[in-house]
Design goal:
Blueprint: H1 3-12, E1 23-25, H2 28-35, E2 40-44, H3 48-55, E3 56-58, E4 61-63, E5 66-71, H4 73-86, H5 89-99, H6 105-128, E6 135-139, H7 148-161, E7 165-170, H8 177-187, E8 192-195, H9 200-210, E9 214-218, H10 219-225, H11 231-249, E10 255-259, H12 265-269, E11 275-278, H13 280-288, H14 313-325, H15 332-343, H16 345-349, H17 353-362, H18 374-380, H19 391-395, H20 398-421
Parallel strand pairs: 1-4, 2-5, 2-11, 5-6, 6-7, 7-8, 8-9, 9-10, 10-11
Antiparallel strand pairs: 3-4
Amino acid sequence: MSDRFEQELVDLSKSNVAPQQPQLVSSPLLAAVCAAGTKHIYADSADGKEIGALVAAGDGRIYREIDGSTANQPLIRKVFDRYLSELDIKEWSARLRAADPSLSPQLLTATVYAAICGRAGNDVVHSFAAGRDWGVSLQLHMDLAGDAAAAKRIGRALRQMVPSGVVKVPFSPHHPECFLVARDLEREGIPINFTSTFSARQTVAAALLADVTLTNIFMGRINQGLDATMLGEHVDLCAQRELRRLRQEQGVKTLLIVASVREWQTFAHVAGCDVFTSPVSAIKDFMTQTEIPVGEIRSQLETSYKDQMAIGAKALDTLGVEGIARLYEVEPEFVRFLVETRQRSEYAQLQDGEPLVRWFEQAGFGDFFYAPSDSEWQELSKNKLPQLDSTHAQQLELDTLYTLLADADFIKYQAEMDQLLQPHLG
């Protein structure tokens, strides 16, 4: 990326919001979660007004425990029209083309989208950082999943645009290069949030193959999709314990995000997990609830909810106990395979995802990846939750299916925003 191109992106993404310096005060309930071992609590939103209503403690003060925000395609879509109306995207397009005449139409779209995300991220940072490193997770354009070089280029640009930014690289079972993109950006010092992950084994792979800064369990979708209670919480705690062990034994740095929070009770049920990212409504409900007092908020890292889980009858009939257990169980053989893979000299230099798929298959873990056909993508895009009577539910591992459904949902929102962008790109 040329110096001129980099500078154009940095200039375009600059916020017009004057940096604010509010006083930081503490929320007793959120402070109790942090005292249990949680390091960060993020708002799942790209909307500065929505975040402001959450963090405001009155008299110009804001709550210190909320120290970041995360955004994906559906969340950027909520603010996209406003930014399109406020910004001169035609001018942006002309400036970027002048800085890099080789830009393809597809890469121009992905770059402009990144710049809009950067502007939204900087607006939030200026409003709420208050001298802290406000972490802003911003997801790459979904079309970049199949182009590792372009994904890394835009990932570097996002970090330059938002110095406290974390680049969200979605796990793409159909594009195994996602691990290599995450690995290489982390090597350059760019923190990665490896997202679209739903199982303990997926988080272990993200830690061992890419040593990402953050990875996720979308626990709310797990519970909702299987008509379950406490299953997502159990998956989170199993994944957290696996990552904690790998930090001790393998020196990885990966933190777990408890994501897709649906209910305020989650903060108490899995208190002590590394990071929470939650919709504003769930954080508000937790901060104002009176059922669980501060003194009863304690670390749950050694808790098992296996005996308290309730799973819908249809999910059990379709998937079986073993199929559902793949979400929270991690075979020792799988961990050994990943450790051996990350130590291979070939892996250190690998830039093509196909050998990685082949190694997984040879080790007996070929179900980790899957490339849907065009017709399958159309089917997957209809619902972000598993359809238990579908052929996919019968044929794919549950975590792989959940990831493909999440990616299909992001792709749908991405296409909608791309269509809105096109008239402005010239």
